[in-house]
Amino acid sequence: MKWISILQDYQYYLKIEKGLAQNSIDSYSRDVKKLISYLEENEIVVSPITISEEIIQQFIYSVSKQLNARSQARLISGIRNFFDYLIFEEYRKNNPTDLIESPKIGRKLPDTLSLEEIDVLINAIDLSKPQGERNRTILETLYSCGLRVSELINLKRSDLFFDEGFIRVIGKGNKQRFVPINNQTQKYIELYINSIRTHITTQKGFEDTVFLNRRGKNLSRVMIFTIIKNLAIKIGVKKKISPHTFRHSFATHLLERGADLRAIQQMLGHESITTTEIYLHLDKSFLKKVVNTFHPRK
Q1: Residue 30 is a catalytic residue
Q2: 115-292: which CATH topology?
C-alpha cells in the first residue's frame, strides 16, 4: 500500500463520509504529508500498514523541535485520526499513536472587543470608497451574527430571509443553521447589494454570492483578515484581532447581557455546549453579578 494512494482515499473519506470543509481536509492532509516527507528524507521504507510506534515517536521528536506545544498537539491529533481511519477500513488492527502523549496546553482564552472598540473600528472605514460600504457591511455582519470567516465569504443572497429576520448559514461539516439578523445589519446588506454590488461585473458562478471583490468573485479569507488588520493598525488597537474576534465578541456580549448559553450555542453552530462554555471564563465580574442577582441567599 502506497502512502499517496491511501492519503487520497483518506481525503475522500473526510469529504464524503465526514463532511468536512476543504480547509479541514487540507489541514489533516498536511499532517500526514509531514510524516511522508520525514520517511522519504530519512530513507525509511515502510508502509502505512507496517509503520511502527517507534518510527512515529522518532518523527514526532524530530518535528517537535520546530513546533510549539499547541502545534505538536495538533500534529499528533492529525496523525492519530489518519491511523484511526486505517483501522476503520480494516487495514490495521492497532493505532501506532495510542501510547504517544500530546503535550499539555492551556486553554487559550480569546480576545474580545468592547462595543466601543467595535464602533471605533467600524467608524474608521473610509465610506467614500466603494469597498468602504462593503467592508462596513462585512464587519457588521460578522459581529451581529457571530459568523465564522468561512461562513461569511460563502454567504449567498438566497440565504437571506429578511422578512423572517434570519439568515441561513452553512457551517462546519455542511451543517445548516438559521441565525437571527437585526434590522440595522439587514439595511447595511441591502444598501450594499442595491447600491454597490450592482456596479460590479459578477463573474460566472458568483451571481448568488453576497460579498464580492473588485473582479466579481467571492472574497478570500486572507482578504477579510487584511481588512481587519489594516483597520486595527489605523486606530491603534493593541489587541491581536481577527475575524474570529468579532465572533467571540458577539457571544461574550450576549452572555454579559443575560442570554441563555444554549441559545448562544445554537447561533454559533457549536456541536457541543462545552465549546460554548469557554465564554464563561471571560468575565468573572459578570459571573459574580449573576450569583449576587439570582442566588436565593444573596
Answers
A1: no
A2: hpI Integrase; Chain A (1.10.443)
Catalytic residue among 148, 197, 248, 253: 148
Is 244 annotated as catalytic? yes
The grid cell for 262 is 444554549
The fold of the 3-88 domain, in CATH, is: DNA polymerase; domain 1 (1.10.150)
Of the candidates 148, 152, 116, the residue with the CA atom closest to the CA atom of residue 137:
152
Please say if 188 is a catalytic residue: no
Q: Is 134 considered catalytic here? A: no
End-to-end CA distance of the chain: 66
In tens digits, the chain (298 residues) has pLDDT values of 789 999 999 999 898 878 888 888 999 999 999 999 999 999 999 999 999 988 998 898 888 778 787 888 888 889 999 999 999 888 988 998 887 877 765 556 567 888 999 999 999 999 988 799 999 999 999 999 999 999 999 999 999 999 999 999 988 777 899 999 999 999 999 999 999 999 999 999 999 999 999 999 999 988 999 999 999 999 988 888 889 899 989 988 888 888 888 888 889 888 777 777 766 565 556 656 666 776 676 5
Among 197, 247, 248, 253, the active-site one is 247
Give me the residue spans of the domains in the chain.
Answer: 3-88, 115-292
- Would residue 215 show up in a list of annotated catalytic residues for this protein? no
Overall pTM > 0.85:
no
